[in-house]
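Q: Predict the assembly, please.
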Amino acid sequence: MLTLYDFMGSGNGYKVRLLLAQLATPYKLVECDILKGETRTPEFLAKNPNGRIPALQLDDGTYLAESDAILWYLAEGTQFAPADRLARAQTLQWMFFEQYSHEPFIATVRFWRHFFDRLTPLQELELPGRMEKGYAALGVMEKHLGRHEYFVGERYGLADIALYGYTHVAAEGSFDLDPYPHVCAWLARVAAQPGHVTIDHKN
Amino acid sequence: MLTLYDFMGSGNGYKVRLLLAQLATPYKLVECDILKGETRTPEFLAKNPNGRIPALQLDDGTYLAESDAILWYLAEGTQFAPADRLARAQTLQWMFFEQYSHEPFIATVRFWRHFFDRLTPLQELELPGRMEKGYAALGVMEKHLGRHEYFVGERYGLADIALYGYTHVAAEGSFDLDPYPHVCAWLARVAAQPGHVTIDHKN
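A: Predicted assembly structure:
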């Protein structure tokens, strides 16, 4: 059986838990508290040398890291994976957009604000730039979703799961989604998908 | 014919130019000077709403963005793409590692130091943390390359191209690679691949 090492508050981990639920794939959940350094122990670093959850142990013992690589692995051959070459590349385009232009801003600010009582002085200095870049990412999404129901191929799939993970909790980082009505409508469409589970869902 | 919108100093763009050279795929190069804001014009934003190079225009007019998504598109069905499901996921694992845990530190510091005369006050404050995280990424690579010749499947492929892009110019950000002998040996192996071109190569 698959074993998922995860932290329940993580949007990156939630992406994987959401897809596993929608695939109805059984797995064992091992919670690792990143706030207590449990992903930086020698034992965990032997699983993922980069010291991050989620990490998925496959049946043969192999560990996979990086949420979007895990999503790709799990989705291959299912309805959630893109069916043709261009759609695969477009899906990866949005997944890399999420990890490079969205997560470091929206997820990081949400992490600072949601899990800690106050920001450090350096975080205070970085905050305006991070907020601005987070809103820029929401703007790119809003523009795309003004013309499309989902991110790729007009159907729910991996790119939507990847972007939903932290967008739906952006308010926990004090991002205001009201100026992004197409993003809000898409969030509702994703939440209405069969088999949808919330971020606090445990299998 | 493919059209690549690129900035010659970009390691992200170079990844694509390197693979295109090794595939012997002809393309038209359109240079965009990111230092002059040429990727933030209305014309460019119509190609990539995220305002970044590289962007690849396909024969049907479609634009693809995100260097690693472009690499994936170009490599499908070639010797540079992984042949099985696990290797595909491991390749993506390293590509997402590169964009999340390597590029924002090594490439960003190199960008600050290589293209500008001095750092801004905020960049000066962020520098120690960015250097530390860049070295952490090199440490993860060093550990892996101590046991493997290449990143996935013991053969040169997409993960190597993705990680080579900015690792080989890390010194331009004042990163010292001497403590990473396995990384240095791997850089030499990549540079010795058939069809290798340097970052200033134009087709």
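The first strand of chain A starts at residue 2 and ends at 6. Chain A is about 50% helix and 10% strand.
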